[in-house]
Predict the structure.
Amino acid sequence: MNGRPSDDPHAGAPKREREVTELLRRAGLRPTRQRLSLGALLFDGVDRHVTAEMLHEQAIRASVPVSLATVYNTLHQFTHAGLLREVAVDGAKSYFDTNTRDHHHFYLEDENRLIDIAGGSIAVTGLPDTPEGMEITHIDVVVRVKQAAKR
């Protein structure tokens, strides 16, 4: 070693931060401090479903100083870059899924929670022809369930 600081901007950075930095760069996003912090919370190797409010709470618990508006903006940027998939449950409620592969969901109404349905267990048939010049990008099926009434 020559005693100079490393030319590697990630020298000394935690491994997780380096992984998120590369993930963001491959997606065409600049790795800002807030994107890195939120990305480290989201992309930990475990697929999950979060709302902006859930991620904001997690960020606050992790001492990440970020506004709810920034969380919303970042989730939408990640979605547009293909890193997340947005799943609309109600008109005003969306979840963001770290699993971007084709699959569907159960929405547990009593728990306000999404869980994955295996990709091949639902067949969607009878789709209409798409408008000229358009193609189907994906189909979201959300099966809403709740606890059955006891008899």
